[in-house]
What we know:
The chain has two helices and 16 strands. By secondary structure, the chain is mostly beta strands. A hairpin with a 2-residue loop joins strand 3 and strand 4.
Amino acid sequence: xxxxxxxxxxxxxxxxxxxxxxxxxxxxxxxxxxxxxxxxxxxxxxxxxxxxxxxxxxxxxxxxxxxxxxxxxxxxxxxxxxxxxxxxxxxxxxxxxxxxxxxxxxxxxxxxxxxxxxxxxxxxxxxxxxxxxxxxxxxxxxxxxxxxxxxxxxxxxxxxxxxxxxxxxxxxxxxxxxxxxxxxxxxxxxxxxxxxxxxxxxxxxxxxxxxxxxxxxxxxxxx
Length: 223
Protein backbone atom coordinates (compact mmCIF):
# COMPACT_ATOMS: atom_id res chain seq x y z
CA UNK A 1 0.00 0.00 0.00
CA UNK A 2 2.88 2.33 0.70
CA UNK A 3 4.23 1.90 -2.84
CA UNK A 4 1.08 3.04 -4.69
CA UNK A 5 1.69 6.77 -4.23
CA UNK A 6 5.24 6.31 -5.55
CA UNK A 7 3.94 4.52 -8.62
CA UNK A 8 1.36 7.26 -9.23
CA UNK A 9 4.02 9.92 -8.83
CA UNK A 10 6.24 8.08 -11.29
CA UNK A 11 3.43 7.86 -13.86
CA UNK A 12 2.74 11.58 -13.52
CA UNK A 13 6.45 12.34 -13.94
CA UNK A 14 6.68 10.20 -17.10
CA UNK A 15 3.54 11.79 -18.57
CA UNK A 16 4.85 15.28 -17.89
CA UNK A 17 8.20 14.39 -19.48
CA UNK A 18 6.53 13.08 -22.63
CA UNK A 19 4.30 16.14 -22.81
CA UNK A 20 7.19 18.58 -22.42
CA UNK A 21 9.25 16.68 -24.96
CA UNK A 22 6.41 17.00 -27.45
CA UNK A 23 6.22 20.75 -26.92
CA UNK A 24 9.90 21.31 -27.59
CA UNK A 25 10.37 18.79 -30.38
CA UNK A 26 12.01 20.49 -33.41
CA UNK A 27 9.82 21.00 -36.47
CA UNK A 28 11.32 19.46 -39.61
CA UNK A 29 10.73 20.70 -43.17
CA UNK A 30 12.12 19.27 -46.42
CA UNK A 31 12.47 21.47 -49.53
CA UNK A 32 12.67 19.85 -52.96
CA UNK A 33 12.53 21.24 -56.49
CA UNK A 34 10.34 20.18 -59.43
CA UNK A 35 12.66 17.21 -59.99
CA UNK A 36 12.40 16.17 -56.32
CA UNK A 37 16.01 17.19 -55.72
CA UNK A 38 16.93 18.82 -52.37
CA UNK A 39 17.01 22.61 -52.35
CA UNK A 40 19.65 24.52 -50.42
CA UNK A 41 19.21 28.15 -49.29
CA UNK A 42 15.40 28.05 -49.00
CA UNK A 43 14.28 30.31 -46.16
CA UNK A 44 11.16 29.48 -44.14
CA UNK A 45 9.53 31.37 -41.28
CA UNK A 46 6.81 30.62 -38.73
CA UNK A 47 4.24 33.44 -39.06
CA UNK A 48 2.67 32.93 -35.62
CA UNK A 49 5.17 34.99 -33.58
CA UNK A 50 6.44 38.40 -34.66
CA UNK A 51 9.95 39.54 -33.88
CA UNK A 52 10.34 41.98 -30.99
CA UNK A 53 13.16 44.34 -29.96
CA UNK A 54 13.82 41.95 -27.09
CA UNK A 55 14.40 39.13 -29.56
CA UNK A 56 16.95 41.21 -31.43
CA UNK A 57 18.70 42.38 -28.26
CA UNK A 58 19.12 38.77 -27.11
CA UNK A 59 20.79 37.94 -30.42
CA UNK A 60 18.41 35.14 -31.39
CA UNK A 61 20.13 34.74 -34.77
CA UNK A 62 23.62 35.40 -33.43
CA UNK A 63 26.28 34.60 -35.99
CA UNK A 64 23.91 34.93 -38.95
CA UNK A 65 24.63 38.62 -39.52
CA UNK A 66 27.83 38.09 -41.50
CA UNK A 67 28.09 38.09 -45.29
CA UNK A 68 31.69 37.37 -46.29
CA UNK A 69 33.29 37.79 -49.71
CA UNK A 70 35.41 34.85 -50.82
CA UNK A 71 36.76 34.15 -54.31
CA UNK A 72 34.67 37.04 -55.65
CA UNK A 73 31.44 35.54 -54.32
CA UNK A 74 29.22 36.39 -51.37
CA UNK A 75 29.53 33.65 -48.78
CA UNK A 76 27.10 32.27 -47.90
CA UNK A 77 24.93 33.19 -50.86
CA UNK A 78 21.87 33.60 -48.60
CA UNK A 79 21.55 34.62 -44.98
CA UNK A 80 18.42 35.25 -42.89
CA UNK A 81 18.22 37.76 -40.03
CA UNK A 82 15.61 39.42 -37.84
CA UNK A 83 14.28 42.85 -38.68
CA UNK A 84 16.37 45.29 -36.65
CA UNK A 85 19.60 43.32 -36.83
CA UNK A 86 22.89 44.40 -38.37
CA UNK A 87 25.06 42.63 -40.95
CA UNK A 88 28.80 43.01 -41.43
CA UNK A 89 30.47 42.47 -44.78
CA UNK A 90 34.07 41.33 -44.30
CA UNK A 91 36.22 41.04 -47.40
CA UNK A 92 38.37 37.90 -47.36
CA UNK A 93 39.62 38.44 -50.91
CA UNK A 94 42.93 40.07 -51.76
CA UNK A 95 41.10 42.63 -53.92
CA UNK A 96 38.71 45.40 -52.94
CA UNK A 97 34.92 45.20 -53.22
CA UNK A 98 32.08 47.75 -53.28
CA UNK A 99 28.90 46.23 -51.76
CA UNK A 100 25.55 47.84 -52.56
CA UNK A 101 21.81 47.16 -52.85
CA UNK A 102 18.94 48.77 -54.75
CA UNK A 103 16.26 46.73 -52.92
CA UNK A 104 13.22 48.48 -51.43
CA UNK A 105 13.81 46.82 -48.06
CA UNK A 106 17.30 48.37 -47.88
CA UNK A 107 19.22 50.70 -50.18
CA UNK A 108 22.83 51.20 -49.21
CA UNK A 109 26.43 51.04 -50.37
CA UNK A 110 29.80 50.48 -48.78
CA UNK A 111 32.51 52.32 -50.65
CA UNK A 112 35.37 50.37 -52.21
CA UNK A 113 37.22 48.66 -49.35
CA UNK A 114 39.49 45.82 -48.31
CA UNK A 115 39.43 43.63 -45.19
CA UNK A 116 36.43 45.01 -43.28
CA UNK A 117 34.16 48.08 -43.61
CA UNK A 118 34.00 50.56 -40.76
CA UNK A 119 30.58 49.53 -39.40
CA UNK A 120 27.89 46.88 -39.96
CA UNK A 121 24.70 47.81 -41.82
CA UNK A 122 21.32 48.00 -40.05
CA UNK A 123 18.37 46.23 -41.71
CA UNK A 124 15.26 47.73 -40.13
CA UNK A 125 12.60 46.75 -42.68
CA UNK A 126 11.41 43.21 -43.48
CA UNK A 127 11.85 41.93 -47.01
CA UNK A 128 14.39 40.58 -49.46
CA UNK A 129 17.63 42.46 -50.02
CA UNK A 130 19.70 41.64 -53.10
CA UNK A 131 23.39 42.49 -52.86
CA UNK A 132 25.86 43.27 -55.61
CA UNK A 133 29.39 44.50 -56.05
CA UNK A 134 29.93 47.60 -58.16
CA UNK A 135 33.24 46.16 -59.39
CA UNK A 136 32.22 42.53 -60.04
CA UNK A 137 28.78 42.09 -61.62
CA UNK A 138 28.81 38.31 -61.15
CA UNK A 139 28.70 38.74 -57.36
CA UNK A 140 25.16 38.37 -56.02
CA UNK A 141 24.06 37.72 -52.44
CA UNK A 142 20.71 37.75 -50.66
CA UNK A 143 19.52 38.75 -47.19
CA UNK A 144 16.10 37.63 -45.98
CA UNK A 145 15.03 40.14 -43.33
CA UNK A 146 12.36 38.41 -41.27
CA UNK A 147 9.45 40.02 -39.46
CA UNK A 148 8.98 36.73 -37.60
CA UNK A 149 10.81 35.36 -34.59
CA UNK A 150 11.33 31.78 -35.79
CA UNK A 151 12.95 31.11 -39.16
CA UNK A 152 15.66 28.95 -40.71
CA UNK A 153 17.56 28.30 -43.95
CA UNK A 154 17.72 24.88 -45.59
CA UNK A 155 21.01 23.01 -45.73
CA UNK A 156 22.51 21.11 -48.70
CA UNK A 157 20.09 18.26 -48.07
CA UNK A 158 17.15 20.67 -48.25
CA UNK A 159 16.37 20.20 -44.55
CA UNK A 160 15.18 22.89 -42.18
CA UNK A 161 14.65 22.77 -38.42
CA UNK A 162 12.30 25.35 -36.89
CA UNK A 163 12.53 25.84 -33.13
CA UNK A 164 8.91 26.92 -32.75
CA UNK A 165 7.09 25.83 -29.60
CA UNK A 166 4.30 24.25 -31.64
CA UNK A 167 3.72 23.41 -35.32
CA UNK A 168 2.63 26.64 -37.05
CA UNK A 169 -0.51 26.86 -39.16
CA UNK A 170 1.05 29.16 -41.76
CA UNK A 171 4.60 29.42 -43.11
CA UNK A 172 6.41 31.96 -45.26
CA UNK A 173 9.07 30.67 -47.62
CA UNK A 174 11.38 32.04 -50.28
CA UNK A 175 14.25 31.09 -52.55
CA UNK A 176 16.34 33.34 -54.85
CA UNK A 177 15.91 30.97 -57.83
CA UNK A 178 12.12 30.73 -57.60
CA UNK A 179 10.05 31.84 -60.58
CA UNK A 180 9.08 34.94 -58.55
CA UNK A 181 12.32 35.78 -56.70
CA UNK A 182 11.06 39.14 -55.39
CA UNK A 183 8.01 37.54 -53.75
CA UNK A 184 7.70 35.78 -50.40
CA UNK A 185 5.24 32.88 -50.59
CA UNK A 186 2.69 31.73 -48.02
CA UNK A 187 2.04 28.08 -47.22
CA UNK A 188 -1.06 26.99 -45.32
CA UNK A 189 -0.30 23.77 -43.47
CA UNK A 190 -3.28 21.41 -43.70
CA UNK A 191 -1.74 18.73 -41.50
CA UNK A 192 1.73 18.17 -40.09
CA UNK A 193 3.09 14.67 -40.77
CA UNK A 194 3.77 12.45 -37.78
CA UNK A 195 6.43 10.21 -39.34
CA UNK A 196 8.74 12.62 -41.16
CA UNK A 197 9.34 16.20 -42.30
CA UNK A 198 6.78 18.41 -44.01
CA UNK A 199 7.54 18.37 -47.75
CA UNK A 200 7.45 21.66 -49.70
CA UNK A 201 8.14 21.61 -53.43
CA UNK A 202 9.58 24.67 -55.16
CA UNK A 203 9.51 25.55 -58.84
CA UNK A 204 13.02 26.82 -59.52
CA UNK A 205 14.83 28.39 -62.42
CA UNK A 206 18.39 27.31 -61.69
CA UNK A 207 20.94 29.60 -63.40
CA UNK A 208 23.02 27.82 -66.03
CA UNK A 209 25.78 30.41 -65.69
CA UNK A 210 26.82 32.93 -63.08
CA UNK A 211 23.98 35.48 -62.74
CA UNK A 212 24.71 39.13 -63.39
CA UNK A 213 23.55 41.74 -60.91
CA UNK A 214 22.22 44.08 -63.61
CA UNK A 215 19.48 41.59 -64.48
CA UNK A 216 18.11 41.73 -60.90
CA UNK A 217 17.84 45.49 -60.47
CA UNK A 218 14.47 46.08 -62.13
CA UNK A 219 12.59 43.37 -60.21
CA UNK A 220 13.84 44.51 -56.81
CA UNK A 221 12.83 48.15 -56.95
CA UNK A 222 15.90 49.70 -58.54
CA UNK A 223 15.67 53.08 -60.28
